[in-house]
Amino acid sequence: MNDTMQNPVNIPVVYTLQAGSIPLLVSMPHIGTHIPIELRGAYVPRALDVEDTDWHLNLLYDFLGELGASVLQPVCSRYVIDLNRPPDDAPMYPGAANTELCPTRFFSGEPLYHEGWEPSPSERERRRTAYWQPYHAALAAELARLKAIHGYALLWDAHSIRSHIPWLFEGKLPDLNLGTASGAAADARIADAVLGACTDQSPAQTAYTTALNGRFKGGYITRHYGQPASHVHAIQLEMCQSTYMAETSPYAYNEALAAQIQPLLKKMIFSAIQAAKVCYEK
């Protein structure tokens, strides 16, 4: 089943949802690249290239349909609304550089908007209502549907990021950054199984560095929807884009690199699915 959310005032589609048959929903909240025409004049020209997109995750995760997973993707860029931030815009990482519900800076720290054109409180609320709320309503409804069918649901929040972003963190990120809100968002057996898949790499494979609940512990989606006591488990994966694409413009997908990491990505997801199943075996 395919589902779309219409928003005739701004863009024809707010999100796309491919509803699957297994108890897994993959959310890709930062894959969108669209900035509505009526908003573009407020941004500096560089912003229209949406450089901080989680590029090409639809290609990297192209096996999800065959697997039977549900997949939720927005259309709008994170520069319009960050779907992985809380609706009250509270900082996700107190004391560190944070991006906002309606971001005003690039990941490099420079302003996204022409001076004086940043979104007003009323504009931020309009965007929250028009874009954030429909996406989260769809996410919650799909998790509820999967839980009703299977008795539990697994949420995989898929992200990618440049490996070096000094404004946000020092040095190079690990290649694979797993987050479960320091263990609050998923049963430990699920997190351990995914981490085990990462660390159990054969000598023939490219060696990928891994962290669990390090710099990235999971954003709002992981922290809000991951409720093991209610039989919903959530894991965020923040991948370095250097593992599958060029990190500089035009941000090209690298099929050779992607082919090296895709088997491990599949193994990680399969391990999560199997571990969740074991948690609910009678």
Describe this structure in words.
This protein starts with a strand and ends with a helix. It is of the alpha/beta class and about 280 residues long. It is built from 7 helices and 8 strands. The chain has a single domain (about 1-280), classed as Zn-dependent exopeptidases (Aminopeptidase), CATH 3.40.630. Strand 6 (about 175-180), helix 5 and strand 7 (about 210) form a beta-alpha-beta unit. Strands 1-2-4-3-5-8-6-7 form an 8-stranded mixed sheet, with helices on both faces. It is globular and about 60 Å long. Helices cover about 30% and strands about 15% of the residues.
Quick structural summary:
The protein is α/β, with parallel strands linked by helices and 282 residues long.
**Low-pLDDT residue spans:** 4-11
- Based on CA inertia axes, which overall geometry fits? globular
CATH class: Alpha Beta
Mean pLDDT: 91
How much helix is in the residues? Answer: 25-40%
Tell me the series of helices and strands, N- to C-terminal: EEEHHHEHEEHEHEH
User: In which order are the strands of the major sheet placed?
Assistant: 1-2-4-3-5-8-6-7
CATH topology: Aminopeptidase
Any idea how many domains? 1
User: Total helix count?
Assistant: 7
The appropriate CATH architecture is 3-Layer(aba) Sandwich
Structural class: alpha/beta
Q: Characterize the biggest β-sheet.
A: 8 strands, mixed
Alpha-carbon Rg, integer: 18 Å
- Report the portion of residues in β strands: 5-15%
CATH superfamily: Zn-dependent exopeptidases
Distance between the termini: 30 Å
